[in-house]
Amino acid sequence: MIVDYQMSDEYILNPERGFYTSIEIGKDKDLSKIREQGFTLARSNVHLDQFRDKNISEEFLQEFRDALTEVRRAGIKVIPRISYNFPMPGETEKQPDAPLPIVLNHIEQLKPIFQEYQDVIAALPAGFIGAWGEWHSSTNGLHNFESKQQVLTALLDALPSTRMVQLRYPSDIKSAYPNPLNDAEAFTGIHQARIGHENLCFLANADDAGTYSIHDNDSNNIYSPDIKKDLQSYLKAISPYVIVGGETCQVTPESARTDSETTLAEMQHFNWSYINVSFYAPTIDRWKKEGIYNTIANKLGYRFRLVEAQIPEIVNSGGEFKMSFTIANDGFASPYNPRSTEIILRNQENKQVYRFPVYTDARRWFSQQQHQVNFSGSISVDMPKGTYEVLLNLPDPTPQLYERPEYSIRLANQDVWEPSTGYNSFLTNLSVN
């Protein structure tokens, strides 16, 4: 039987993507409002100012754990930016960070938390170095290659191999790995495959406020059109495989490139997954005025939909069960974290569920492509005869979130979503004889 599916243009609240809002770790005690406001992703600035010359206190570490527990309870994920300062404009040289040994020790202290709460940490901006943790203006001289490399390696080792670190500047990624990540290396868990990009001045001006410049050991920007072209070429090569996101900024509003055409083109070109909903506010307002805000909201990250499925009407007990389905990805990107895929057969009479793992990687359901998935499995002789609904499940693979429907992916089709289970219906049944 061939089943075709109708596309939905509804806004979908899916995990690890979209506009994000900001929270204060440890201060915002009830985060349930985040999903109610239409967000599944939040960013939080984690301030280590008081620990620039000493260990992080056990009290602070416990507050961090408690905050991440609340993130999990609220059904969202977080992008924590860890820094030693948060200067006002013009104060970047006055706000200290920490010496390298302190930074490395703090990362080691945070490692158990990164491991325990990996399920709700969407990704980790590199942080720690310089003003706002943005890897420039370090008062301890940490903006040299050797210091950056030590911090980057420590962060990658502290995080589980399923999670990515984001660097502010493509030049830092290229300095660490001159040859861009390729398809064979992607999603393997090696260090290079786990380094994404965080653009914190998206479309601010010609080089996105230093994003597409190279930087000397004094944090001076060196820019030319050729440098920008080279760095953008590098970023384009890796962006299908890694997390890309960030925010706009206000440094040069008269030079901003935030018109509708440029915005949508660059988000697509560099496979954006998320962006700040509130900063820089005039840019967000412009997108609303020009009518692209909803388009961005729908297309950030992945947007999967069923095109068609071929499903047998009858399978035999103890026999083979084969089916296929075609998924289109209308989003700017694909998922950047691992994702499970399952075919569900649910007995229509007693609602008993039978799960069949599908060996595919949704991270490779790339943007603006269609992907055919073929499945073959066996029907157990113990499976009762009867009529079964056929469903698709795309759950979070972590044990803490696997059974929680708000962390499963909803498809952009009409009449397929089950909010109580997180399943997507193939809108057909089969009989087990």
Note the main attributes of this structure:
alpha/beta; TIM Barrel; Coagulation Factor XIII, Chain A, domain 1; eight-stranded parallel β-sheet; six-stranded mixed β-sheet; 20 strands; globular; DUF4832
Can you give a write-up of this model?
The protein has an eight-stranded parallel beta sheet. Strands 13, 15, 16, 18, 19 and 20 form a six-stranded mixed beta sheet that branches. The protein is globular. It is α/β, with parallel strands linked by helices. The chain is 23% helix and 24% strand. Strand 8 (214-215) and strand 9 form a beta hairpin. It has nine helices and 20 strands. It has helices at residues 32-36, 58-74, 100-116, 145-158, 170-176, 225-238, 260-269, 281-289, 293-299, and strands at residues 2-4, 18-23, 41-47, 77-83, 124-125, 165-167, 195-199, 214-215, 221-222, 244-246, 274-276, 304-310, 314-315, 320-329, 342-347, 353-357, 369-378, 386-393, 417-418, 423-432. The chain has two domains: 12-299, TIM Barrel, CATH 3.20.20; 304-432, Coagulation Factor XIII, Chain A, domain 1 (Distorted Sandwich), CATH 2.70.50. InterPro entries: DUF4832, DUF4874. Residues 194-413 form the DUF4832 domain. This is DUF4832 domain-containing protein. Pfam families: DUF4832, DUF4874. Residues 14-171 form the DUF4874 domain.
